[in-house]
Amino acid sequence: MNVQSCPTCITVFCASARAFVPYLVVLFVCVIALGSAQASLRVPVSLTLTVGDGERISFDRQQLNRLPQIDITTHTPFTSGLQTFRGVKLSILLEAANVSHYQALTLHAMNRYQARLTRDVVTRYQPIIAFERNGKPMTIRTLGPLWLVYPLDDYPRLQSDRFYETMVWQLTDIEVEP
Predict the structure, then answer these.
(1) Which of 164, 160, 159, 155 is nearest to 117 (CA)?
(2) What residue ranges are annotated as transmembrane (predicted)?
(3) What distance in Å separates the CA atoms of residue 171 and residue 150, rounded to the nearest whole number?
(4) Are strands 83-89 and 128-133 parallel, antiparallel or unpaired?
(5) 92: which residues sit within 8 A by CB, 6+ positions away?
(6) Number of CB atoms found within 10 A of residue 140's CB
(7) CB contact at 8 A, 32 and 16
């Protein structure tokens, strides 16, 4: 028996299809909402350095892209497995801002978390300001859009709470201490 020869089959088929319409509408709305939620977790890349007497130098994603970039492949205590981070060496960023003399830096996160880095740590371990992880721009959900990352696997000494505490994610500001 085929559907065309059976009016009862057509009625049952149409009624069944109509029953799925509300579920399809809900599914469509959920997909749209999920896309909006993910978009809201992306914030513009912006990093501000405060130097000396309050001089503020800001970098956006385009300005960071113009600086030499480097990849660090390492494990972190905050992620699973080997990760590849792309970003700009903090020392290069400071050079671009004409910061040559400083004793320490205070890094500030979106949630007001702060960490202090000495000049010696910056020059010895060359951390980067990462803006990509595994080839994708980082979002707030993935600890971005900016994250200070060390080459942890290259220096076993860095694998301690002392250094993990300075790996500021959702980085927004760096205060230069003379």
Answers:
(1) 164
(2) 20-37
(3) 14
(4) antiparallel
(5) 67, 68
(6) 14
(7) no
Per residue in 89-106, pLDDT (tens digit) is 999 999 999 999 999 999
DSSP state of 158: G
Distance, CA of 106 to CA of 155 (rounded, Å): 22
Backbone dihedral region for residue 129 (phi beyond 0: left; psi -120 to 50: alpha; all else: beta): beta
| pLDDT tens sequence across 143-167 | 999 999 999 999 999 999 999 999 9
Which residue, among 137, 159, 155, has the nearest Cα to 147 in the 3D structure? 137
Query: What 3 state SS string does 62-96 have?
Result: HHHHHCCCEEEEECCCCCCCCEEEEEEEHHHHHHH
pTM of the predicted model, to two decimals?
Answer: 0.76
Tokens of residue 18, six digits: 């109509």
Strands 104-109 and 114-118: antiparallel
DSSP 112-152: S-EEEEEHHHHHHH--EEEEEETTEE--TTTT-S-EEE--G
The whole-angstrom separation of Cα 32 and Cα 30 is 5
